Amino acid sequence: MSTINKPILSCRHVGKSYDNFVALKDVSLSIQESEKIGLVGANGSGKSTLLKIIASITERDEGGITTKKDIAIGYIPQTFTAHKNASVNDFLSEAINKSRGVLPGILPLLSRIGFKETILERKMRDLSGGEKTKIAMLRIIISPYDLFLLDEPTNNLDMNALMILEDFIQKSAKAFIIVSHDRALLDKTVNKIIEIDAISKKSIVYDGNFTDYLNQKKKRIEKEWATYTDSTEKITETQKSINKKESWVRKLEAERNSLRTMNKKEKEKPVAAALRDKEAKMGRRARIIKERLQKFKEEKAPEKPVHLLPLHVRFEVDERSGDKVFNLEGVKKNLPEKNIGPIDMRISYGEAQLYYFRRTDKPP
Q1: Nearest residue to 162 via CA among 329, 346, 297, 350
Q2: Architecture of the domain made up of 9-208
Q3: In what order do the strands lie in the sheet with 9-18?
Q4: Which of 130, 169, 199, 358 is in the most buried spot, having the most CB atoms within 10 Å?
């Protein structure tokens, strides 16, 4: 007798707003033991907010979250500002509730990522960005959590540390929800992608890794556009037919009126009964056609897809770029009729995202 695995965590219709800004709307997901999920979406789509809600750091406004009894959830943020005054050893010890002494098994791990034991006594605030990221990675590896929430865990990692992290996630029996712009990481580690749509703020589930997600999303958008195009073409053809039938109905009604106004002598002729019968049939046909046309006009027109068809651009490069490709901060463009911006945008290595710019009317 087979058993159905129950999820260790489920989110149902979760929503979050800040004043008039909707960060999340109707987001649902579930995760099983050992499952690895990639959480993707455009910058500002609410990915980090969702992780904080799951970790009980941020309150949700709507929806519910249920978890397995006694589940241990570990949230690993992009930055550790709350731990800036802690020593590296204390920072790592906190992950396993150990209060003093050198952590067991930590020295070989430090050596693997190029650190000496002396780093354990340094303050977190004194570490470089790359050093902090590596220490945060060690915290992930030694933590006894059932579910890991990782927010951009590969930022500033060198190749050696990145391979250690990938290997750990792949071999771990624990569950992971990973927010990352690193396509290669998501291709190697996750078996499901959940996208938070930048426009609707809702969640869409895709089976497979990041490449599978891109292919499935492309097919979904192409299908939406094909359905929309097909519907609009049918509407156009139907409208042409309607115009012809409306013209024909007008002719029918004109002929009926001519039959009604024939003089008394004509009505007394033997053909009068046949003419009256013809008039009645014309009236019925005209009425039926009118009813069909009115029903068609009342039907809801198909909605135009909100997502653009994918733009295919390929650049051949010989070697990997740095993590940061380019940043835009407060960029504005004034046009004769419109203003665009300000635009804040970041493009990182391996990132595949759509960005939506708000266009505002130029003030007089």
Answers
A1: 350
A2: 3-Layer(aba) Sandwich (3.40)
A3: 21-31, 9-18, 62-67
A4: 169
Nearest to 152 by CA among 356, 327, 357, 351: 351
Compute the Cα dihedral for 13, 14, 18, 23 and give only its sign: negative
Instruction: Give, for all 364 residues of the chain, the pLDDT tens digit.
Output: 444 578 999 999 999 998 888 899 999 999 999 999 999 998 888 999 999 999 999 999 999 999 999 999 988 887 777 678 889 988 888 877 655 556 667 888 888 888 998 999 999 989 888 888 888 888 888 888 999 999 988 887 888 888 989 999 999 999 999 999 899 999 999 999 999 988 888 999 999 999 999 999 999 988 888 888 887 777 777 767 666 766 766 676 666 566 566 544 555 555 555 555 665 666 676 677 667 667 766 666 677 877 776 666 666 766 666 677 778 888 887 766 567 778 877 777 766 555 544 444 444 3
Q: 178: buried, middle or exposed (CB in 10 Å: 19+, 13-18, 0-12)?
A: buried
Sign of CA dihedral 161, 90, 147, 202: negative
Q: CA 218 to CA 236: how far, in whole Å?
A: 27
Please give the model's pTM, rounded to 2 decimal places: 0.69
The DSSP element (H or E) to which 195 belongs, if any, is strand 192-196
The structural domains of the chain, with segments of one domain joined by +, span 9-208, 222-298, 324-361
Instruction: State the Cα angle at 322 between 185 and 91, rounded to 5°.
Output: 65
